[in-house]
Amino acid sequence: MLQNRWWSWGFRSAILLYFILLIVFPIIGIYGQSLTNGWAALVDNLTEPIAWKSVLLTAKLALFATIINILIGTMAGWVLIRYRFPGRSLLNSMVDLPFALPTAVVGLMMLLLLGPRSEVGHWADSLGFTILFHEPAIVVAMVFVTFPFVIRAVQPLLEEMDASEEEAAYTLGASRAKTFFRVILPAMVPGIMSGAMLAFSRALAEFGAVVLVAGNIPGRTLVASVYIYGQIESDNPAGAAAVSVLLLTFSFLVLWLVSYVQSRRTGR
């Protein structure tokens, strides 16, 4: 009994120490660095026009990417669970590819796919607009790196759904569309919401895939993560920390909302 108690205490202490060293201390360090020169300096760094414009641009484009992910991710999750077709298993495994690929590789892929020498680039030029180094390229990169979140959040809900509810709706004369919007979609909403919030939070912080395709023009295509990198390169850690704290606070709020949605779902 004593040996088991010591083993349990040591295991929990190791996990707690790991959590403190790798998560708590860096977070405290970021907040501390942002306040190195006081609250006034923090406010000045956050109200710097280039800084807050980069944050607003990032939030706007992350929102667009999240909306796209909600639509495509919900449909993809539905197809992968409800339909059987050749290549389904391969497609399902490729959903997690953005998690495995280095984000710099994703940026290079976007560069080759959307660049002026690509077919997509030639097509865009023929229509009179350019994708690369503009906002659409940033949205595409964000969509790619956050693509799995909604799908993986929706799939378990579809797998757990009781088929008798759908059958009852069909028996009562409901059409497929009405059954989807009245029976199936409400059961998917918690997963869609939690996946969308995680995708939004991830898109806010994306750097590797964005830096190669954004153009990084202040006020136009300069996103927050690239701005932070630029401040570090310019030997302004306080300015970088100020914007980092803002993004970190957004992420905390999103994670709290995800936890709240999941607790409501499990509490039913």
What's the helix and strand layout?
Blueprint: H1 2-34, H2 39-47, H3 49-82, H4 88-94, H5 97-100, H6 103-114, H7 119-127, H8 135-160, H9 163-171, H10 176-205, H11 208-211, H12 224-233, H13 237-267
Helix pairs in contact: 1-13, 2-13, 3-8, 3-10, 6-8, 8-10, 9-10, 10-13, 12-13
Short description:
With 268 residues, the protein is mainly alpha-helical.
Short key terms for the protein model shown above:
268 residues; mainly alpha
Task: Please characterize this protein's 3D structure.
- The chain is mostly helical.
- It has helices spanning 2-34, 39-47, 49-82, 88-94, 97-100, 103-114, 119-127, 135-160, 163-171, 176-205, 208-211, 224-233, 237-267.
- Helix 1 (2-34) crosses helix 13 (237-267), helix 3 (49-82) packs antiparallel against helix 10 and helix 9 (163-171) packs antiparallel against helix 10 (176-205).
- It is globular, with a radius of gyration of 22 Å.
Please mark out the parts with pLDDT under 50 across 5 or more consecutive residues, or reply none.
none
What's the helical proportion of residues?
Answer: over 70%
> Could you tell me the radius of gyration in angstroms?
22 Å
The N- to C-terminal Cα distance equals 38 Å
The sequence of SSEs as H and E is HHHHHHHHHHHHH
Number of DSSP E strands: 0
| Overall morphology | globular
Which structural class is indicated by helix and strand composition?
Answer: mainly alpha
How many helices? The count is 13
Largest sheet: none
